[in-house]
Amino acid sequence: MMSDHSLSFEKEIITAKFIAPSGEDVEKRIEVRINPVSGRTSRIAFGRGAEKEPGTQSLPLRPPNADDTAGCPFCKPQVMSKTPRILSDIFPDGRLCNNNSILFPNLFPYGSYSAVSLVDNRHFVEIGRSSVSSYTDCFINCRNYLRHVIGYDSEAVYMAITQNHLPSAGGSLIHPHLQINADRIAPNHHRFLRKKAEEYFHQIGSYLFSDYLLHEKQDGSRYVGKTGSWEWITAFAPEGFLEIWGILPKTTSLYQITDSGWSHLAQGVVNAQKFYRSLCRNGYNLGMLFVEDGSFYLEMRVVILARSNYAPWVRNDHTGFEVMLGDMATFTSPEDTAKNARIFWT
Prior knowledge:
The chain has 346 residues and is of the alpha+beta class. The protein has 7 helices and 14 strands. It has helices spanning 79-82, 132-152, 188-204, 208-219, 259-278, 320-325, 334-341; strands spanning 10-19, 25-34, 41-45, 96-98, 101-105, 113-118, 158-165, 177-183, 223-227, 230-234, 241-248, 283-291, 300-307, 328-330. The strands form 2 sheets. Strands 4-5-6-8-7-12-13-11-10-9 form a 10-stranded antiparallel beta sheet, with helices on both faces. It has a 4-stranded mixed beta sheet with strand order 1-2-3-14, with no helix packed on it. A hairpin with a 2-residue loop joins strand 9 and strand 10 (230-234). The protein starts with 9 loop residues before the first strand and ends in a 5-residue tail after the last helix. 40% of the residues are buried.
C-alpha cells in the first residue's frame, strides 16, 4: 500500500495585482504545481486560458511540401536507395520491415544506435488520421530493432522511442516516423528517472509510476481512460501543453510487452492525436524512455504533449520564462484537459 508521504501532489496559488487600462483593480491567479516525480515546478497561467492562440482557430493548412513525394527520402520507391542500412553484425538484412513500417539507421544520429522507423507509407498524414495498425507495426519494428541492438551491445541499455510530428515539434521531415535511440551513456532523464524509481522502491517498497497512477485513479480529476493494460492520465504539473501520460503498471522491460500491448499503446497514441486535432493542434511530441539493464524499478511510461502549430506566424510554446527560468507555463489546467480528452477514450 502506498504511503501517504511517498508522493506529494503540491500546488500553491499566487496572485498578480494591477490596474487595468479601464481603471479597474485586477487580480490574476497563477497556480504553481510541483511535479511529484521530478520536484520541478510548473505554472498554470489561468489568465490566458480564454485567449485564442493565433493559428488555432482552425486546423492549419497542409504543409507546403505535403505532396512532394519525389523529394522525400522516406517515400517509395526511393526509400531503399536514399536511406542507410544497419550494420550486418546487428541485422544482416540492413533494414527491418514490419508490414508498412521500414526501419533504418538515422543518417544524422544522436547516439551510437540511432534509427528511424516509418509509421506510414503516405508522405504526409494529418494528426489524428493515422491508423492504429500503422503505429502498432511501427512500435513492434522499434522493439525488434532494440532487441537486436541489446543482443549486439549488452551495455547499450539506455533506450528511447520518440516522435516529432511536423517541424514545429522538431521534425526535419514531414513523412511520419518515430526515432529510436540506444546508448551506453545515460541521457539526463534516464539517469534521473532510474535513480528516482530505484530509491522509491527501496524506500516505499512499491513501484513509482504504479503508485502515481493509483493516486490519480483515486483522485479521478486527471484520469482519462484505458487502452488494454495501458492507463492514461494528464500530468499533474505539466511540462508541456496538454500533456498526457500513458502508464503500463509494473512493466519494466520491452521484453514484457506483448504484441497486443504495443497495439494498445498505439490506440492511446491515436486517441491523443485525435484529441489534439479537435483543438486544432497539428504538432506534437511523444517520448518513451526505458533502461534494459535487468533492473525492475522503472516502469513503462509514454509522455505525449502538444506543440506550437506548424503554420505561418504562430507563437512558439517556449518563451524566455521556460528557457531561462526553467518553469513551464501553460494556460489550461490538467483537470480540464482530462475532462476534454476522456471522450476520445470512450
